[in-house]
């Protein structure tokens, strides 16, 4: 999906995130704004590969065990939600949904960097990794060697969507963990913040995802935050014009410029994707795009392109339609490049380390 970014894991940047979010809300709500690729990945057939009841006999309490961690993490650190969902997206788009993004480079046994340390993954928040680590520890204590890290990540992402107010949907399980994690495979498989709709469609199509999937999955930007570096060019030098993006709402432009200078700004500063309800999983993202309040160029483009605009308009009007479509799209994305069996996968005891 288009870049789902969040701030670094320091407590100070978390405070900055909240402060800027409140500031943007004040700026906008006091005005007329209404507040409320290459490297083609193999696509598998989810119904043949995965099952809701995959662990019914081997670990029947798996979802409750993971839920005990995600609910606690969400209360203690709400940013764990968007952090984990972003982790899932970045995992599935590179080598498929196989938890390869969680592998630590220092455990690779060679000088090759793992996916986690690729430039495009450098600002993944630690809370996402921590959620999976804690959930894995609890699951291993009850069902040792049974549940994959890939399935734990998929279930955790669903939990956080629901905890933040979004839909609850069944997660099909049966993924094995991947044996390969290479930073060099990331750049060509992860959407960039300034992608055009054509570029987005090309990448999503290479994963077996449709135009509608693109717009629906982008709705995950209904909560979470992005670093200034991902949108600063829109504020000062849009596509080399030496001018701001003419589409962006002037009030949002002024607010963002106050926190994100053209040069020399604080690298930890972030802004909310959804300036109206930044901590809630709802459909406000699409209404924001219609009001020219999209944060990233790749997001705002969805409301401008004639191919995607009607979908944005439909989802802006109907939250339940968005929820149903999002659940279906997450299941579809969650089946990309699924690994099965010891020939292609492993069941890691420590999600950050390959099995010996």
From TrEMBL:
<dbReference type="GO" id="GO:0005576">
    <property type="term" value="C:extracellular region"/>
</dbReference>
<feature type="binding site" description="axial binding residue">
    <location>
        <position position="221"/>
    </location>
    <ligand>
        <name>heme b</name>
    </ligand>
</feature>
<feature type="binding site">
    <location>
        <position position="96"/>
    </location>
    <ligand>
        <name>Ca(2+) 1</name>
    </ligand>
</feature>
<protein>
    <recommendedName>
        <fullName>Peroxidase</fullName>
        <ecNumber>1.11.1.7</ecNumber>
    </recommendedName>
</protein>
<feature type="site" description="Transition state stabilizer">
    <location>
        <position position="86"/>
    </location>
</feature>
<comment type="function">
    <text>Removal of H(2)O(2), oxidation of toxic reductants, biosynthesis and degradation of lignin, suberization, auxin catabolism, response to environmental stresses such as wounding, pathogen attack and oxidative stress. These functions might be dependent on each isozyme/isoform in each plant tissue.</text>
</comment>
<feature type="disulfide bond">
    <location>
        <begin position="228"/>
        <end position="260"/>
    </location>
</feature>
<feature type="active site" description="Proton acceptor">
    <location>
        <position position="90"/>
    </location>
</feature>
<dbReference type="InterPro" id="IPR002016">
    <property type="entry name" value="Haem_peroxidase"/>
</dbReference>
<feature type="binding site">
    <location>
        <position position="191"/>
    </location>
    <ligand>
        <name>substrate</name>
    </ligand>
</feature>
<keyword id="KW-0575">Peroxidase</keyword>
<feature type="binding site">
    <location>
        <position position="115"/>
    </location>
    <ligand>
        <name>Ca(2+) 1</name>
    </ligand>
</feature>
<feature type="domain" description="Plant heme peroxidase family profile">
    <location>
        <begin position="49"/>
        <end position="355"/>
    </location>
</feature>
<dbReference type="GO" id="GO:0046872">
    <property type="term" value="F:metal ion binding"/>
</dbReference>
<keyword id="KW-0732">Signal</keyword>
<feature type="disulfide bond">
    <location>
        <begin position="59"/>
        <end position="143"/>
    </location>
</feature>
<feature type="signal peptide">
    <location>
        <begin position="1"/>
        <end position="37"/>
    </location>
</feature>
<keyword id="KW-0560">Oxidoreductase</keyword>
<dbReference type="GO" id="GO:0140825">
    <property type="term" value="F:lactoperoxidase activity"/>
</dbReference>
<keyword id="KW-1015">Disulfide bond</keyword>
<dbReference type="InterPro" id="IPR019794">
    <property type="entry name" value="Peroxidases_AS"/>
</dbReference>
<feature type="binding site">
    <location>
        <position position="222"/>
    </location>
    <ligand>
        <name>Ca(2+) 2</name>
    </ligand>
</feature>
<feature type="binding site">
    <location>
        <position position="274"/>
    </location>
    <ligand>
        <name>Ca(2+) 2</name>
    </ligand>
</feature>
<dbReference type="InterPro" id="IPR033905">
    <property type="entry name" value="Secretory_peroxidase"/>
</dbReference>
<keyword id="KW-0408">Iron</keyword>
<feature type="binding site">
    <location>
        <position position="91"/>
    </location>
    <ligand>
        <name>Ca(2+) 1</name>
    </ligand>
</feature>
<feature type="binding site">
    <location>
        <position position="282"/>
    </location>
    <ligand>
        <name>Ca(2+) 2</name>
    </ligand>
</feature>
<keyword id="KW-0964">Secreted</keyword>
<dbReference type="InterPro" id="IPR000823">
    <property type="entry name" value="Peroxidase_pln"/>
</dbReference>
<dbReference type="GO" id="GO:0006979">
    <property type="term" value="P:response to oxidative stress"/>
</dbReference>
<dbReference type="InterPro" id="IPR010255">
    <property type="entry name" value="Haem_peroxidase_sf"/>
</dbReference>
<dbReference type="GO" id="GO:0042744">
    <property type="term" value="P:hydrogen peroxide catabolic process"/>
</dbReference>
<keyword id="KW-0479">Metal-binding</keyword>
<feature type="disulfide bond">
    <location>
        <begin position="92"/>
        <end position="97"/>
    </location>
</feature>
<dbReference type="InterPro" id="IPR019793">
    <property type="entry name" value="Peroxidases_heam-ligand_BS"/>
</dbReference>
<feature type="disulfide bond">
    <location>
        <begin position="149"/>
        <end position="351"/>
    </location>
</feature>
<comment type="similarity">
    <text>Belongs to the peroxidase family. Classical plant (class III) peroxidase subfamily.</text>
</comment>
<keyword id="KW-0376">Hydrogen peroxide</keyword>
<dbReference type="Pfam" id="PF00141">
    <property type="entry name" value="peroxidase"/>
</dbReference>
<feature type="binding site">
    <location>
        <position position="277"/>
    </location>
    <ligand>
        <name>Ca(2+) 2</name>
    </ligand>
</feature>
<feature type="binding site">
    <location>
        <position position="94"/>
    </location>
    <ligand>
        <name>Ca(2+) 1</name>
    </ligand>
</feature>
<keyword id="KW-0349">Heme</keyword>
